[in-house]
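Listing S7. Sequence submitted for prediction.
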Amino acid sequence: MQPDIETIFRSQKDNCSKLALTCAKERMERLMRIDNYLKDRDNLEELFDALYKDLRKPDVEVLATEVGVIQTQITYLRKNLHRWLRDHKVPTPLPLAGTRSYIRYEPKGVVLIMSPWNFPLNLSLVPLVYAITAGNAVMLKPSEISSHTSAYIKKMMDHLFDWKEVAVIEGDASVASGLLELPFNHIFFTGSPEVGKIVMGKAAKYLSSLTLELGGKSPAIIDETANIPKMARRLAWAKSINCGQTCISPDYLIIHESVKEVFIHEFISSVREFYCQQDKGVDQSPDYCRIISDHHFQRLRHLFEDALGKGACVLYGGDFDRHGRFITPTLLGNVSEEMDILQEEIFGPLLPIITYNNRSRVNQIISGNPNPLMLYIASNNKDNIRYFMEKNPSGGTVINDYMLGYSNPELPFGGNNNSGVGRSLGFHCFMEFSNTRSVIQRKWGSLGLIYPPYTNRIGKLIKSMYRWM
């Protein structure tokens, strides 16, 4: 039986020195336990069932957006971890002649990972595998909202690891609060900006380092030069996958007024093609997820009704079924800034549309919100692309597509201020879980030539050394 969280923390702390000495081969062996577990057919079927119960997620989406992402990261780590764990030599400046300088990446110690409910396996295990490769002990707190998948993760980790290395802690917000009272060496949190601020405040007590993967309102810009049929189809998919419950989902659309009507037509056609086969409604599609909980369903319904009450109109969709927690992909027009739907992160299949005819207006709209996690630009005009990128800071940018910001481990993923702190994926995530230790080793010589007393000769020598740097 797993002990209480304070006992787990102390035991992991005591075990840190042992984990720090593990080599790349030993750390990869730990990752392959995870990889092989997810490849087992019985385990995979159990996962399908858990994610269906939590989100009614279809098996294909489980493979593509949960399991496949984890396995891609493990494959990438197999190719790179040995190189990352070597000493990284750096140049030696002239005043340090006779020394060698290098960087060593060492584990931080005991880390806490707090993961969300929307991609509960992916967003738990991706940071976990990077924490393991950096040599840390891990306490993982998955979301209690996606309870079936959280139970699956605990069963999996209890089978694969001793709790002194990896411990899964289930429970509600009170359990999370208890964990945040412990002096972790690093905290990796994925969730809302509001909760992220609480986590940062708790971490400040012990000066724990942080990675915050947050969200915010990620705008999608479509200008008059974009390929509208292609971009409408891609956006319809991006806004519908996981029922829009994705931190990198396009939150609202800013479109040139000259192509708005064509876009609406193509968007509707795409949704019907994806989810209305055999003339059945979206609610009958086996490929469309559901809202995670009654609370989140009511929150989305409030955003919708608030917008309508303040003058918005439904351009498509608007169907809500409380019992099934179903919301059809919905387009809203005539939206304005005083509506809650343009103030809060939506995190659902509602897409407000704002039109523009002068590109400077786009910047005014985006600047009304904090820096977004992602900026989406659809355009075939290089000048417009450059203009929108330069005027609108964001954690990442995707041009002429959607949802790709979390797909390439060679690129850092993360937000900008309100949308996040720190980076994940690839070497950047490995660094988040590592102490970057600088080392200078004297091989020959010394600085004795510049020791006191400071004569004119020493002054001239120092001036000569730094003049030539």
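Caption to Listing S7: primary sequence and predicted structure tokens for the chain studied. The longest strand covers residues 99-107. The chain has two domains: 5-214+419-437, 219-399.
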